[in-house]
Inverse folding.
């Protein structure tokens, strides 16, 4: 391969290999037009375990909005109420996922910052199970250093919604269900749902939860799952099966606690052995029977 650049920044490429003879011309520009690359700001840099940071981003990213109609929903909100704890939150206004972890090194993020979803996905790809990640902020940019790699990104401007107001302080009904059992039943039930609602109705009884789906032109299903609960009166809730599945896929615990107070109140999902990881899903209205 021969490469040649003339005074007008025209790049000529000649390739000769075996039976291939080719010539390509690319239009280039002066290097002076390339924007200056910001330098990593060490003044307010913090350090966090790569494995912890990766786990936090991965577990909540599914709840972020994929569109950019409301930019604040198209990212991960990082905030630190105390110097030894970091909280990551994502929401698209119909569901929310939040995780908090204790960190060894102090991090000053009292006001919080929204990291773009694309940046978060790139971080998930680069972060490993060992070592640390350095993180800093300067004006409207965030900086990440992972080994020899640096990521520089604009932060999402705007006010992230008060997520604490969305999370119920307590639920009237709490049920414990086997995680894998629910995943398997939900996967079968989703055959009979249709996007975008993917509606499945959960009927909660004393020791049983019934998953019901009914979609014209597709069919219907009904499946029972054993639960442990404090249900005194039967309650039925409509929920987006895909939202529930997205949450369950990020849970490693053998069992989860599902909390609710009424047919149209927020539903909470929390691993039994990890109270610092919580998801909230808004229910879908159903006709009372």
């Amino acid at each position: 391969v021969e490469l040649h650049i003339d005074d007008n920044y025209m790049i000529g490429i000649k390739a000769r290999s075996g039976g291939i003879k080719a010539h390509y011309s690319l239009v280039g520009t002066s290097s002076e037009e390339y924007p200056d690359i910001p330098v990593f700001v060490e003044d307010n840099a913090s350090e966090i375990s790569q494995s912890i940071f990766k786990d936090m981003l991965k577990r909540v990213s599914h709840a972020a909005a994929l569109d950019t109609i409301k930019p604040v929903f198209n990212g991960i909100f990082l905030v630190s109420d105390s110097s030894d704890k970091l909280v990551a939150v994502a929401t698209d206004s119909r569901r929310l996922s939040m995780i908090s972890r204790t960190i060894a090194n102090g991090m000053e993020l009292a006001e919080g910052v929204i990291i773009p979803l694309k940046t978060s996905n790139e971080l998930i790809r680069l972060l490993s199970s060992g070592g640390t990640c350095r993180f800093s902020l300067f004006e409207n940019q965030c900086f990440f250093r992972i080994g020899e790699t640096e990521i520089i990104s604009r932060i999402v401007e705007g006010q992230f919604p008060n997520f604490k107001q969305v999370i119920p302080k307590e639920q009237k009904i709490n049920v414990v269900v086997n995680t894998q059992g629910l995943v398997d039943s939900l996967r079968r039930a989703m055959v009979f749902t249709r996007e975008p609602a993917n509606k499945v109705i959960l009927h909660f009884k004393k020791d049983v939860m019934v998953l019901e789906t009914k979609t014209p032109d597709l069919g219907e299903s009904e499946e029972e799952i054993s639960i442990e609960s404090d249900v005194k009166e039967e309650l039925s809730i409509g929920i987006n099966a895909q939202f529930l599945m997205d949450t369950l896929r990020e849970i490693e615990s053998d069992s989860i606690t599902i909390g609710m107070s009424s047919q149209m109140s927020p539903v909470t999902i929390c691993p039994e052995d990890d109270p610092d990881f919580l998801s909230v899903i808004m229910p879908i209205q159903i006709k009372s029977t």
